[in-house]
Design goal:
Layout: H1 2-8, H2 10-30, E1 43-49, H3 55-70, E2 76-83, E3 88-95, H4 101-115, H5 121-126, E4 129-133, E5 137-145, H6 153-169, E6 174-180, E7 185-191, H7 193-198, H8 203-213, E8 221-222, E9 235-236, H9 246-250, E10 253-256, E11 262-264, E12 269-275, E13 282-284, E14 287-296, H10 302-317, E15 324-331, H11 333-362, H12 365-388, H13 395-425
Antiparallel strand pairs: 1-3, 1-4, 2-3, 5-14, 5-15, 6-14, 7-12, 8-9, 10-11, 13-14
Helix pairs in contact: 2-12, 3-4, 6-10, 11-12, 11-13, 12-13
């Protein structure tokens, strides 16, 4: 019997127990930690935006060309898309479990590039984004202004985009940091339709004038070769470039009249700085806020990643402008941490229970030491098996571990008691 081998070779049994304990302890520091098992197929998300278009227009001009090319991509299971009346388009492509998310992303991106020429020019200018996307939300963070501040949502959005979002995206274990309810700064031009009609103009005329005059033009250099040998100076010529202020946009020329006068944008429209899109508004306790959703990367340790995100957020908060605060309003690792705490508490209770029962009923120190060593070894070693099988420490596997603790405790008491009985009946053994 196998048990006889370890009985006759106690040093071998000790070495194996030490190896199992070390392997389990190392696995505890490396095993992914999540709220639920990773059984969701890998997903790749394709997003696009068609400003001013309705859901029907987005479906016809954006969804159909993209989906016609993406359908049938290698190892795809299914895909789901949504078209919004705000011009937004989202496509989620699900792949077979076990496939490489990076490879899936490359395959989808190649199909998107094939369909790009069929999309409207406005969509191409906005860009089509292809990202591997985890469905697991790690945290939801709100940046908001306190009761004494007068920070606008556009300012909070701009500050978060420039100073916060990139820092959080670089945290190890974060798959994506996504801004919700963002109100990006934009130049808003409000047409006076009556003036446009009286001057025989259309909104497209103003759009064309802005596109033609709001450009970054490379105008070249002066004094560059080939020139005469007596040329002593060479310089780069710089123009004003793209416009940045409402006054500059208001000065854009729409047309020159026969009498020598000039018609400008400010004559037919009101120009101001404002939010690009005001369809979504986020508030916390009545104060303007911006939400940041933190998505977990595949196979990342949720508890460790959440701690790193919190530490990064605290570091960034030291340089926040006066009145800007941060708050984690949702954290999926709280439940996981509580579960781990309960498992450790159960393990401690089981350990004490085994020691007391064995010592009280058998009354020998040797019989008490054996389960006190064997039970922790078997439970710690279980994490090495979980890591080797590719499992994570989640609520399901930890629940199974709690059940296993009860089985190990019962078996330990039963084996030690039976061992003492056999030793009493056959002392020569």
């Amino acid at each position: 019997m196998i048990s006889a081998i370890f009985i006759k070779r106690p040093r071998l049994a000790i070495v194996i127990a030490i190896v199992i304990t070390i392997a389990g302890a190392i696995s505890l520091t490396r095993i992914p930690v999540a709220q639920f098992p990773d059984i969701v197929p890998p997903r790749v998300q394709v997003t696009a935006n068609y400003p001013g278009a309705s859901a029907a227009v987005v479906e016809a001009s954006v969804a159909e060309p993209l989906e016609a090319q993406i359908v049938g991509v290698d190892k795809m299971i299914y895909m789901k898309s949504t078209s919004g009346d705000d011009g937004s388009y989202n496509l989620t492509v699900s792949f077979q479990p076990g496939t490489d998310p990076d490879t899936d992303t490359v395959n989808v991106n190649n199909r998107v590039q094939t369909a790009l020429a069929q999309l409207p020019q406005e969509v191409q200018l906005q860009g089509v984004t292809v990202l591997k996307r985890s469905s697991a939300i790690l945290q939801f963070i709100n940046l908001y202004g306190d009761s004494k501040s007068k920070l606008s949502p556009t300012f909070i959005t701009s500050y978060a985009t420039i100073n916060v979002l990139d820092e959080l995206s670089r945290v190890p274990g974060v798959g994506q940091a996504l801004l919700f309810g963002k109100l990006n700064y934009s130049m808003r031009i409000w047409f006076d339709t009556q003036k446009l009609t009286s001057l025989n103009l259309q909104p497209s005329d103003i759009v064309a004038a802005i596109q033609a005059q709001n450009v970054q033009a490379p105008v070249g250099r002066l004094g560059a070769r080939p020139v005469a040998n007596d040329q002593q100076v060479q310089m780069n010529v710089e123009t004003q470039g793209q416009l940045t202020t409402p006054k500059q946009f208001g000065d854009i020329v729409l047309r020159a009249n026969p009498d020598g006068s000039v018609l400008r944008v400010r004559d037919v429209a009101r120009v101001e700085m404002g939010a690009q899109n005001e369809d979504t508004e986020t508030r916390i306790n009545g104060r303007p806020a911006v939400g940041i959703a933190m998505y977990l990367a595949p196979d990342a340790n949720a508890v460790k990643t959440a701690k790193l995100v919190t530490a990064t957020l605290q570091k960034l908060s030291k340089s926040f402008p006066p009145g800007l605060k941060e708050r984690v309003v949702y954290d999926s690792t709280v439940f996981v941490s509580d579960t781990i705490r309960e498992v450790l508490w159960t393990l401690g209770e089981a350990f004490i229970l085994v020691v007391l029962v064995v010592f009280l009923f058998l009354g020998t120190l040797r019989a008490t030491v054996i389960p006190a060593i064997a039970v922790p070894v078997s439970l710690i070693g279980a994490f090495a098996v979980l890591l080797a099988l590719g499992y994570s420490a989640n609520t399901v596997s930890l629940l199974a571990l709690v059940l296993a603790i009860g089985i190990v405790v019962d078996d330990a008491i039963f084996v030690v008691e039976n061992f003492e009985r056999v030793m009493a009946e056959e002392p020569l053994l």
